[in-house]
Amino acid sequence: MARKPVLTGGKRDEILDAAMKLFFKNGYEATSVRMIVNEVGGEIGMFYHYFKSKDMLFDKVVERFFREYREKFEALLSACETREDFVKTFLPLYEKSMEDFDKLRGNIHWTVQIALHEGTLRELRPVVADLIQKWDVKNSESSDLLAGQLLYGISATIHSGDFEKLSDADKKECILDYIGRILDR
């Protein structure tokens, strides 16, 4: 007998919400399918109606998280015509995201933290690559490669204790200098 098509909404979304909460709290390995279905008041069979495996569910949770995150950043960053616009928009947005993340950090398992960080940089890469194509870039490398270099470098810089000690103006100048070093070589 063929499996019924899986629709969105309803219990499927409840499972996704519960799984995200439990993965953040416990990590992937320590979260069982039983824990997830107990959270939504369901049975194991219901889980397998919507998802073939816990791995598939985790992939869907991560996709959903990053889709929402990317859409938020993309809407704000797509209007940046210059590097200065990018830095003025990106730094407050990133700092706000870090504040939100810090509120969750105590409840997020370290494995999930690493996955979220890597996924964030991966999701922002095409957005930043599109911006680079708008700018006056003297570097002949692909915009995708440059976007990766920028994002990983900016991320390392922003997470530095020394960066946190800088004034807002110095933070902007630091990031603009780094962008220039990557794009104008």
Share of helix, binned: over 70%
Compute the separation of the termini in Å. 61 Å
Rg, alpha carbons: 20 Å
What is the number of strand segments? Answer: 0
Order of helices and strands: HHHHHHHHH
The major beta sheet can be summarized as: none
Number of domains: 2
Tally of alpha and pi helices: 9
By helix and strand content, what is the structural category?
mainly alpha
Average residue pLDDT: 85
Cα shape? elongated
Low-confidence blocks of residues: 1-7
Strand content: under 5%
Brief summary:
By secondary structure, the protein is mainly α. It has helices spanning 10-26, 33-40, 44-50, 54-77, 83-105, 110-134, 143-158, 161-164, 168-183. The N and C termini lie far apart (61 Å).
What does this structure look like?
The protein is mainly α and 185 residues long. The chain folds into 2 domains: 10-58, Arc Repressor Mutant, subunit A, CATH 1.10.10; 62-183. Helices cover 76% and strands 0% of the residues. Helix 4 (54-77) runs parallel beside helix 6. The chain is elongated, with a radius of gyration of 20 Å. The relative contact order is 0.10. The model is unreliable at 1-7 (pLDDT under 50).
Fold topology:
Elements: H1 10-26, H2 33-40, H3 44-50, H4 54-77, H5 83-105, H6 110-134, H7 143-158, H8 161-164, H9 168-183
Helix pairs in contact: 1-2, 1-4, 4-6, 5-9, 6-7, 7-9
